[in-house]
Amino acid sequence: MAGAVTLDIDGAIATITNINPEKHNAFDDEMDAQLFEILGSIPASVRAIVWRGEGKSWSSGRDVGSIGTNKTELSHHELMRRGHRGIQQLWQMDQPVIVACKGWVMGGSFQRALLADIRIAAEGTRFRLPEVTHGVIPDTGGIAVLQQICGPGVVSDMVLTGRILSAEEALHHGIVSRVVPLDELDSTAREMAEQIAAAPVATIKLSRLIISHLSRPAIRASMDDEMIYQTYLNRSDDMAELRAARAESRPGHYTGS
Asked: Which DSSP letter does residue 183 get?
């Protein structure tokens, strides 16, 4: 069964759901397209958005089988531009987005969660940026947010070693604002959304603008760099060697070019 991203609107609250539970809600190109369409179609009547995942995880990121490949008619650079423009709609919307993290929150999906307004986590949630193990770099803007939240030490550890961060560590570093029991995750996110939806609309909009003005320029610049460097890596000798080494079940011999 192919994955999907759905939108449900209940009064002033919208719920976006990642649905690919057999793969811990890993995203493919079609799910990306569905997500970007949803983000561009939220009606003005919605006051707050909850972004959740079906099954055990919020999202394990990109299907590893598609990393370094391109099954669309777009060039690699064009595909990245579509991804950046699509997810940056989070910043253009008037409604705050609350991400209800659980299970695995990994890779590009973790970075997308970092671009949202609020993240809460269920007990047992695990956060990871494993891109370097696949010969690529994080390319969705999240590492700029992570640097702002918890500094270069934690970012370097997560990006360069691919280490797993627990929910408790994420709370300690400010990556999430709350950790709750798993069976209370959806209800807590809904309660938070209802509190936001009950506030004056103009007040919420202007509060979000103040927060965004403090951080967005640096994040946009980081995403521009990511697009250039990821495009280079896709065509690099090291990427070709990584693919060959994995196909031949041998260690890679990398030259840095």
From this structure: G
